[in-house]
Specification:
Number of strands: 13
Helix content: 25-40%
Distance between the termini: 25 Å
Length: about 300
């Protein structure tokens, strides 16, 4: 039986996931909790971790935390590392809330002469988890609430850009006329493809968003397919914003299955031939292991 070597924590804005991790980043067991970092004050983090995984915590097992726990105003402001950044920089930037506390992984950021331009928290750990699994793709996409398009320089993050695709979809669906009568996405592939193609071809994003309403009124997309159409449209807009060089080579997508499948479909419509999908949970666990392993050497 494999023994745990590490307690890994992925503390997102909305949810918490704690893992017992064995050699190589294999997850032996995991637990989830809805108390995400976005609603917590600094003093709340340690008691919640104790409540969720107290029977796992052992002085002999180090705890490494990625995600929003290291954001300003949360457990500990772990700061950020400017690109280019890889495992060595991340290890050097680890912080702890107290001498016996967990190691909190810093963010990675885009910084220029004008200051901070972009930031990622958690995705850097997923990206490190992809390294070693196979040859690292020159472009890695991490879709989600805030999608990241990352360009790699070997095993280091060279630069990246954030797109608020997931959050924009939720806001449009909940708070505009486009969402009236709209159901959940995922059931109409034809509507999704139609939306992607519109997004890839558009030059006026705010005007084309109204096509969600028009396509339904014209009978070209059924009401039941409007969520898929809008999802495709927004993803198409995201892909259309990428330089052609980013779409010309291999691309890796890391995230939840339903999202990575949709992005793979959309990238195929954009002409991308080689796209590999990876589980976000597996990549996060391997990334936490890789950081711990390098830190221990």
């Amino acid at each position: 039986m494999s023994l745990p070597r590490l307690i890994g924590v992925d503390w997102g804005t909305s949810n918490l996931r704690v893992m017992r991790i064995a050699e190589g980043g294999r997850v032996l067991e995991s637990r989830s909790d809805p108390r995400g970092a976005g609603r917590l004050t600094p003093e709340a983090f340690a008691p919640i971790l104790q409540a969720v995984a107290g029977d796992w915590l052992d002085p002999a097992l180090p705890v490494f935390v990625c995600g929003m726990a290291g954001a300003p105003g949360r457990w500990l402001d772990a700061g950020f590392l400017p690109c280019p950044a890889g495992a060595d920089e991340i290890i050097a930037g680890l912080k702890r809330p107290d001498p016996d506390g967990p190691f909190i992984i810093p963010a990675v950021a885009m910084v220029d002469e004008a200051g901070l331009q972009d930031v990622m928290r958690g995705e850097e750990t997923q990206i490190l988890g992809l390294i070693g699994a196979e040859a690292v793709a020159p472009v890695i996409v991490a879709p989600g609430t805030h999608s990241k398009w990352v360009r790699m320089d070997g095993a280091r993050i060279r630069d990246f850009r954030t797109f608020m695709t997931g959050e924009l979809f939720s806001a449009l669906r909940a708070g505009t006329v486009l969402g009236v009568g709209m159901g959940e996405p995922g059931g109409d592939d034809d509507a999704f493809q139609r939306g992607v193609e519109r997004g890839l071809a558009t030059s006026a994003a705010s005007a084309d968003l109204f096509s969600v309403r028009i396509e339904m009124l014209a009978g070209r997309v059924p009401l039941s397919g409007t969520a898929d159409y809008m999802s495709g449209l927004l993803i198409g807009l995201e892909i259309a914003a990428q330089p052609r060089s980013s779409l010309a080579g291999d691309i890796s997508i890391v995230g939840a299955d339903r999202l990575t499948i949709r992005y793979q479909q959309a990238l195929a419509l954009a002409g991308c031939a080689t796209v590999r999908r990876h589980s976000a949970e597996d990549a996060t666990a391997r990334g936490l292991w890789r950081i711990y392993e390098a830190f221990s050497q």
